[in-house]
């Protein structure tokens, strides 16, 4: 069932589900950032209104991905849980700090998981990504170490931005800065992917 759904999906569906909620968050914030809107008797500024829209849309998008593919990556599940928890706390307490700290928690969690896999000598990253990126064991160890440090750096950077810069600056950073940094990181590791790639026959056998 999942294979037929995935094969029949349009090529734009996956990026729309992954980036659509974030772009919608950005759009709502920019449109209402200087206004106050009453929702169910509660006065919300633009940031809170954008969060109110983002949480259910992100939840629906994740459920649609699960429906189309029949599975979700552990990082997708962890991200959704934190979105609901910290987004809910933000709205319940009408305090944007909870939502701003969410990326910090997510990236610290990822860094901790990857660091633990290195200490235990387990290839957890490869178990998740080996189909899309077949590499040898040495390649996965190097990539795991680099990603652990990278996620730790993103967590620290997010803290620096939201604590020292304006709310609008953080929204720009969250919407565009973080994805660009992740893209640059992946491109910067293209040499590692190539150097440790498995031969086509071994990749299929694995």
TrEMBL record:
Function, as annotated: Plays a role in cell envelope biogenesis, maintenance of cell envelope integrity and membrane homeostasis.
Membrane topology note: Multi-pass membrane protein
Record lineage: Bacteria, Pseudomonadati, Pseudomonadota, Alphaproteobacteria, Rhodobacterales
Protein family according to the UniProt entry: Belongs to the YciB family.
Keywords: Cell inner membrane, Cell membrane, Membrane, Transmembrane, Transmembrane helix
Subcellular localization(s) per the UniProt record: Cell inner membrane
UniProt GO cellular component terms: plasma membrane
Keyword Membrane appears in the UniProt entry: yes
InterPro entries from the UniProt entry: YciB
Organism: Paracoccus tibetensis
Chief localisation class: membrane
Protein name in the entry: Inner membrane-spanning protein YciB
């Amino acid at each position: 069932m999942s294979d037929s759904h995935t094969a029949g999906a349009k090529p734009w569906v996956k990026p729309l589900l992954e980036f659509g909620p974030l772009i919608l968050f950005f759009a709502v914030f920019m449109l209402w950032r200087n206004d106050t809107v009453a929702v169910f008797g509660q006065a919300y500024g633009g940031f809170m209104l954008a969060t109110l829209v983002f949480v259910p849309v992100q939840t629906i998008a994740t459920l649609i991905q699960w429906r189309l593919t029949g599975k979700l990556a552990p990082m997708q599940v962890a991200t959704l849980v934190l979105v609901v928890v910290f987004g809910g706390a933000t709205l319940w307490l009408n305090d944007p700090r909870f939502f701003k700290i969410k990326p910090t928690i997510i990236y610290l969690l990822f860094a901790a998981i990857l660091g633990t896999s290195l200490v235990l000598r387990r290839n957890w990253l490869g178990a998740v990504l080996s189909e899309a990126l077949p590499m040898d064991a040495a390649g996965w160890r190097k990539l795991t170490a680099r990603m652990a440090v990278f996620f730790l750096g993103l967590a620290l950077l997010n803290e620096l931005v939201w604590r020292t810069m304006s709310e609008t600056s953080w929204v720009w950073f969250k919407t565009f800065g973080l994805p660009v940094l992740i893209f640059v990181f992946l491109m910067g590791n293209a040499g590692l992917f190539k150097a440790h790639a498995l031969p086509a026959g071994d990749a299929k056998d694995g």
